[in-house]
3-isopropylmalate dehydrogenase (Tsuneonella dongtanensis), 362 residues
Amino acid sequence: MTRTLSVAVLAGDGIGPEIIPPTLDILDRAARLAGAPSLEWHHVDAGAAHYARTGESLPVAGMDIARGADAILLAAMGLPSVRYPDGTEIAPQLELREAFDLYAGVRPIRTVPGVPLPLADSRGASLDAVLIRESTEGLFYCRGRTKIAEDDSFASDEMRLTRHTSERLFAFAFDLARQRKAAGKPGRVTLIDKANVIGSFAWLRRIFLETAERYPDIETECAYVDAMALNLVRRPWDYDVMVTENMFGDILSDLGAALMGGLGMAPSADIGDSHAVFQPCHGSAPDIAGEGKANPTAMILSGAMMLEWLGHRHDAPTAVDAARMVEHAVSAAFADGALLPGEFGGSAGTAAVGQAVLERLG
């Protein structure tokens, strides 16, 4: 079994450098307690602040470190005041997705007991679903390719979907549903599209249904994105694994984060065939940067997702055990309702939340 796993760490901008240290402490301790392979951190300078200083958002040397690592842990990237010449945000996380073909954006929608939630129905306190967002194509394909008419009368962007990526994405979703079914979850995959209006989505639905034929043990359904936005508020507990195009997933993942209490509780991963990036769903929050107020929970849970992925990839079940320890420690820290970060009206800052989770590890 592998005894050491290397992780490229991109703290990035804003609150990123604040939420990384407690996360690394928690992951290190969990790995030791579980007898998992040790974690070797390789810090990479990247992001908007780095671009402002050097003219590079993600240096070649940093990309090489990320490419050679077993996993990539990313905190937050981007600052509103720092832009590329075309006016777009500094977003090395998108460069990583494209460079490493990280087509499966995994966004868990899992509530933590003790955290204030927006839904009054008691079922909202025990949500456990996953939204899978395609992360390299769709409408995001147009990034850097916008066409503007010479007379400035219109602008157009291309949405691109490919069979190669779509088939891999859907297989990923069905395989995950099968794993979840074995663990007692429903084992159902819902495609979210707009096939009633846009022809490329009708084509995508056909690819989805073709893939579904190879998984007769998994229940399948399709839903239009507007209806899905409604249903994720009205009855989110009815869903298991959801899969969708890039832009739809970008929007609905924030809706899912709201169901969990906010972006501070929402982890994520972007996974490809050979690389993976793990990061919280939130941004760099420059308005509170340097004040110690940031909630590190989403960062910590993203680290747990990384441990689980590394464990499966390297046949290291103790790393999966460490991931479960972190998840349980987070749940235990919030269970009695006393630990309230600022977004919930409390005063628990970065250090307090990190310490509470660390103590629950034993």
